C-alpha cells in the first residue's frame, strides 16, 4: 500500500501524547501545590495566547522561546521570583515528560497496522519536539512508530492557522482534494486545535480524558459553530482514538461523515 492510500494520524504532542504533570510537580516543590497549580494554568494560558498573538502580528519565534517567555509572564503575574537557573531547569523538563497511560497501547496498535502512517504534529520547533520525543522515558521506546515529526518551524506560523494543517498534508504526501483530506486525522486534547483542523478540511478526534474543555465536562467550545464544526469523534484517550478512527474510516470512507460541516460529533464507547 502506497503512502497516498494510507490513513494518516497526526498526534499533537504536549498534553495529548506527553503529560506535563511532572512540570507542575516541579513547580510545587518551590511554591506549594495550590500556588503551583495557579502558575501552571497561567503558564499554559500565556503559552497559547502568545502563539495566537504572534500569528495575528505575522511574527514568529520558536515555541521554546514562546514557552519560556510565557513562564516568566506567569511568574511575574503571580508576584513570585524564580532564578534563571530554575527557569532553565523547568524548560529542560520538557525533554523528560512521561506519556498518558492510554498512549502506549494506542501506539502498539499502530505499530502492527500497515494501513496507517503515524506522525507527531506540534507547534514546537524541530529541536524541542525531537528532544521531547526521543528523550521521554516512555515515548522514546515507541518513537519508531512515527513516520515523521511535523512541526511549524518550516512555515513560521502556529496552530490554528489553516496554513499549518495544509503544511501537515503536504508533509505527509496528501493533496488538498476531499478524498485525500478525509483520510488525514488530527488527534488532540486541545479544542482550538480541533476547530482549526476542521476549518482546514481534515478530520479530528478530540481526546477528552474526563475533565472536558476547561474542566466543564464534554465539548463546550462553540467556535466550531461559526467555523466548520467541532470534532469528528470524541474519545477518551489515544488507544480509543486509533480504534474509533479505523472504525469511522470503514463506515464513512468516501462520504462526508459524522461531525463534518457542523454535524454532531460521534462518540466512542465510554
UniProtKB/TrEMBL annotation:
NCBIfam families: HAD-SF-IA-v2, HAD_type_II
Name of this chain's protein: Haloacid dehalogenase
Keyword set, alphabetical order: Hydrolase
Organism: Hyaloscypha variabilis (strain UAMH 11265 / GT02V1 / F)
Record's signal peptide: none
Molecular function as annotated in GO: hydrolase activity, acting on acid halide bonds, in C-halide compounds; phosphatase activity
Pfam families given in the database record: Hydrolase (PF00702)
Matches recorded under InterPro entries: 2-HAD, HAD-like_sf, HAD-SF_hydro_IA, HAD_sf, PGP-like_dom2, S-2-haloacid_dehalogenase
PANTHER family to which the protein is assigned, alphabetical: HALOACID DEHALOGENASE, TYPE II (AFU_ORTHOLOGUE AFUA_2G07750)-RELATED (PTHR43316:SF3), HYDROLASE, HALOACID DELAHOGENASE-RELATED (PTHR43316)
Protein family membership: Belongs to the HAD-like hydrolase superfamily. S-2-haloalkanoic acid dehalogenase family.
Amino acid at each position: 500500500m502506497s503512502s497516498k492510500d494510507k490513513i494518516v494520524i497526526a498526534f499533537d504532542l504536549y498534553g495529548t501524547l506527553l503529560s506535563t504533570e511532572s512540570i507542575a510537580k516541579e513547580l510545587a516543590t518551590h511554591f506549594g501545590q495550590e500556588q503551583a497549580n495557579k502558575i501552571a494554568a497561567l503558564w499554559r494560558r500565556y503559552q497559547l495566547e502568545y502563539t495566537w498573538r504572534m500569528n495575528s502580528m505575522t511574527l514568529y519565534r520558536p515555541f521554546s522561546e514562546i514557552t519560556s517567555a510565557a513562564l516568566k509572564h506567569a511568574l511575574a503575574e503571580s508576584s513570585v521570583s524564580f532564578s534563571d537557573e530554575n527557569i532553565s531547569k523547568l524548560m529542560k523538563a520538557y525533554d523528560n515528560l512521561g506519556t498518558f497511560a492510554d498512549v502506549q497501547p494506542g501506539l502498539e496498535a499502530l505499530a502492527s497496522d500497515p494501513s496507517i502512517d503515524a506522525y507527531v504534529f506540534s507547534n514546537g520547533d524541530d529541536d524541542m519536539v525531537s528532544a521531547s520525543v526521543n528523550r521521554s522515558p516512555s515515548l522514546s521506546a515507541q518513537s519508531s512508530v512515527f513516520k515523521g515529526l511535523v512541526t511549524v518551524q518550516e512555515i513560521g506560523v502556529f496552530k490554528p492557522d489553516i496554513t499549518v494543517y495544509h503544511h501537515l498534508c503536504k508533509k505527509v504526501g496528501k493533496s488538498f482534494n476531499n478524498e485525500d483530506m478525509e483520510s488525514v486525522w488530527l488527534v488532540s486534547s486541545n479544542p482550538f486545535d480541533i476547530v482549526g483542523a476542521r476549518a482546514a478540511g481534515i478530520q479530528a478526534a478530540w481526546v477528552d480524558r474526563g475533565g472536558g474543555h476547561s474542566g466543564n465536562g464534554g465539548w463546550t467550545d462553540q467556535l466550531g459553530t461559526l467555523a466548520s464544526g467541532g470534532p469528528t469523534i470524541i474519545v477518551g484517550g489515544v488507544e480509543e482514538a486509533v480504534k474509533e478512527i479505523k472504525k469511522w474510516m470503514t463506515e464513512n470512507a468516501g462520504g462526508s461523515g459524522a461531525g463534518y460541516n457542523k454535524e454532531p460529533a460521534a462518540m466512542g464507547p465510554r
